[in-house]
């Protein structure tokens, strides 16, 4: 899964109705199991929001903060935003080729494996087992791990997700600052603090990425994973990967900024 979401898309002749584009994009969204993946993202976001509250204002009634977090990580809003962002990012691209891959084999199976693995890793014991399996495969330099390295490289998963993580952290801090939550920090201070997180974000990104991929693709034959890598290296595959990063990064940037702004209201309230 790339990171690791309906409007007019392809540059079709003017005579064709826009609804045809919308239908194609919606079909791609369904084929890739993105609604289910966004449900997992919503649960991850809610848990992250709770941890923010526990860190910044542990004495605030948890239910009050939970309601605020729930309003930010609203599933329907996240679904609509991600799909609209994806449609914008895919405008003019060969959506038909992408849809063709994920509605045939092995694409259809891969999409479901990615969704189910993402959901399974919400459980701490499953994530821990996946991390251990990935660490062993990496240490032994197994053939499957070498395949996963090719997949990661083809989709720029480490750099793309590190950049997304840094941007998310930056937007949270900017939201916190805009609401008066960190009055002593300048924009330069914020940038320095965010950049100081880069090594840890990179480490955790690499660990999580290989853990997820090891778990998700374990049932695949080598030839099936090779087919996915080959698709990822095509022009439509690269365009889809770029669009997914663009769509979800934009969504997460907005969510993190909103979370920072909400947190600032509680921080300022504690200071009054």
TrEMBL record:
Keywords: Signal. Residues 1-20 form the signal peptide. Residues 76-134 form the DUF2059 domain. This is DUF2059 domain-containing protein.
């Amino acid at each position: 899964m790339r990171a690791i979401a309906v409007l007019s898309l392809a540059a079709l002749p003017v005579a064709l109705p826009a609804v045809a584009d919308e239908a194609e994009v919606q079909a791609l969204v369904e084929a890739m199991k993105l609604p289910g993946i966004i449900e997992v993202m919503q649960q991850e976001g809610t848990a992250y929001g709770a941890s923010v509250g526990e860190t910044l204002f542990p004495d605030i009634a948890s239910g009050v903060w939970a309601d605020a977090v729930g309003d930010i990580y609203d599933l329907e809003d996240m679904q609509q935003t991600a799909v609209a962002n994806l449609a914008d990012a895919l405008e003019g691209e060969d959506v038909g080729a992408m849809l063709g891959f994920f509605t045939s084999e092995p694409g259809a199976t891969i999409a479901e494996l990615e969704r189910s693995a993402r959901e399974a890793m919400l459980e701490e014991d499953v994530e821990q087992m996946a991390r251990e399996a990935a660490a062993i495969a990496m240490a032994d330099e197994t053939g499957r791990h070498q395949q996963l390295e090719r997949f990661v490289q083809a989709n720029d998963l480490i750099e793309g997700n590190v950049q997304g993580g840094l941007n998310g952290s930056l937007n949270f801090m900017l939201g916190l600052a805009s609401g008066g939550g960190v009055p002593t920090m300048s924009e330069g201070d914020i940038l320095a603090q965010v950049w100081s997180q880069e090594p840890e974000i990179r480490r955790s990104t690499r660990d999580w990425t290989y853990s997820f991929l090891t778990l998700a693709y374990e049932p695949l034959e080598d030839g099936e994973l090779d087919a996915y890598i080959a698709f990822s290296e095509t022009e439509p595959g690269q365009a889809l990967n770029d669009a997914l990063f663009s769509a979800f990064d934009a969504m997460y940037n907005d969510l993190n900024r909103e979370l920072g702004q909400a947190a600032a209201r509680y921080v300022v309230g504690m200071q009054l």
